Amino acid sequence: MQLGTPTFSDEEKMNSGIYKIVNTVNGKAYIGSAINFQRRWDLHLSLLRRNMHHNIKLQRSWNKYGETAFAFSVIDRAPADLNLVAVEQKWLDSEAPFYNIARTAGSQLGVKLSDETKRKMSAVRFGKTPSAETRAKMSSWQIGKTVSEETRRKISETKRANGAGKGQVAWNKGIPHTDETRAKMSAWHQASRPRLAA
Does the predicted TM-score (pTM) go above 0.70? Predict the structure, then answer.
């Protein structure tokens, strides 16, 4: 089925598994996994049409050959509770698709974003404030997590390499705080101050 005119059946819309995007002009392909083929298709198409796809090789080919040169197909159906990443990896290993920059399923290693892509992504996010629910989720992800000694050492080395420490000007120096922020900071300091036993 062509990307420009997808005709997913009701069964395909909700099915999960492995899919392939093929350039019908040169036969080069991209392989990925999806829990919902319809949603994944919508995401690919939206990004490609706006010239914002994370895969620069696929985006450049799309720009060169046009939307009608590409076809989307389901190549392996698998239940959502199965390890789709493992299934995808088998396909990546056997097919070695040209457009897949990251050779490890579920990884972005090896994927390099162009300056133009970074600029567009930044423009999309600019001015957006996470909701209270999103901030709570982000905070909960860090609860109970500990940083290994190796990670601490690397952070320390990076800070020293960047000139952090003695003589460095604080990033927020000169930025005025609102009355609300000052009140919150004061309350936090009061609550964290050690108290003497009566």
Answer: no
Per-residue pLDDT of the chain (198 residues; tens, 9 = 90+): 445 445 556 555 557 889 999 999 999 999 999 988 888 988 999 999 999 999 999 999 999 999 999 999 899 988 777 788 888 999 999 899 999 987 787 654 444 555 665 566 566 556 666 777 777 766 666 666 666 788 778 777 777 766 655 556 665 667 788 888 888 888 877 776 665 554
Residue that is written with structure tokens 């990033």 in the block:
171
Cβ-proximal residues to 30 (8 Å cutoff; 6+ apart), any chain: 20, 21, 22, 55, 58, 97, 98, 99, 100
Count the neighbouring beta carbons within 10 Å of the beta carbon of residue 47. Answer: 17
Terminal-to-terminal C-alpha distance of the chain: 77
Q: What distance in Å separates the CA atoms of residue 106 and residue 168, rounded to the nearest whole number?
A: 39
Compute the CA torsion angle 96, 100, 102, 105 (nearest 10 deg): -70
Cα Rg of the chain (Å, integer): 24
CB 58 within 8 A of CB 117: no
Q: Do the Cβ atoms of 58 and 45 come closer than 8 Å?
A: no
DSSP-derived letter for residue 33 is: E
3-class secondary-structure state, position 23: strand
